[in-house]
Amino acid sequence: MTQFKEINIKDFTPDAFGLKNKWMLISAQKDGKANTMTASWGGFGVMWNKEVVFVVIRPQRYTKEFVDNTDFFSLTFFDKQYLKDLGYLGKVSGRDEDKIARAGFHTVMDNSIPYFEEAHTAIFAKKLFVQPLSEASFLDKGIIDQWYPEKDFHYLYVAEVTKILQK
User: Fold this and answer.
1) What is the DSSP string of 28-77?
2) Do 28 and 73 meet the contact criterion of CB atoms below 8 Å apart?
3) Does the residue 82 lie in any domain?
4) Spatial separation of the C-alpha atoms in residues 96 and 62, rounded to whole Å
5) Contact between residue 76 and residue 116 where contact means Cβ atoms under 8 Å apart
6) What is the pLDDT of residue 59?
């Protein structure tokens, strides 16, 4: 049995800038299988009069196939003790092995949306918008040189927060 409890979205006050050096997992399900990736870029906000999250995923990431295959995904946040595991999950592809099991994480499902028992917070989100970032849209070209030398620009996802669970 899970230790998570649903909280009201109005009671959730993330320190978005404090999350800068912390990682999260972006997770989704495809064909009955869950996959996840470590991420540190994204944000919280309001768009189209909805509470939303913003996440970015590079085109070569295996998890992108999972996120693109469904309407919903989760973001999970962890205590510092899981930093090594999150590093591993960010370096190894689910194409090559069952990295979730190898990291020792336990997948929990909520209406076909995977999240992890080891997390302290799970945010469920419904996709509203997706668009690839384009080179022409960057006003500061130094960002391209620093973060996109291979021109593998992220895809931006805007998703409505549908549920938040916390321990």
Assistant:
1) EEETTEEEEEEE--EEEEEETTEEEEEEEE-TT-HHHHHHHTSSEEEEEE
2) yes
3) yes
4) 10
5) yes
6) 96
Tokens of 76: 């999970």
154: domain CATH number is 2.30.110.10
In a domain, 93, yes or no: yes
Q: In which band, very low, low, confident or very high, does the pLDDT at 153 lie, cut at 50, 70 and 90?
A: very high
The verdict on residue 3 lying in a domain is no
Q: How many domains does the chain have?
A: 1
CA 120 centroid distance within chain = 14
Q: Which residues pair with 129 in a beta bridge?
A: 158
**Tokens 């999950």 sit at which residue?**
89
Pairing assessment for the beta strands 72-77 and 121-132 based on DSSP bridges:
antiparallel
Amino acid at 54: F
CA distance 65 to 29: 9
pTM: 0.94
Range of the domain at 90: 12-166
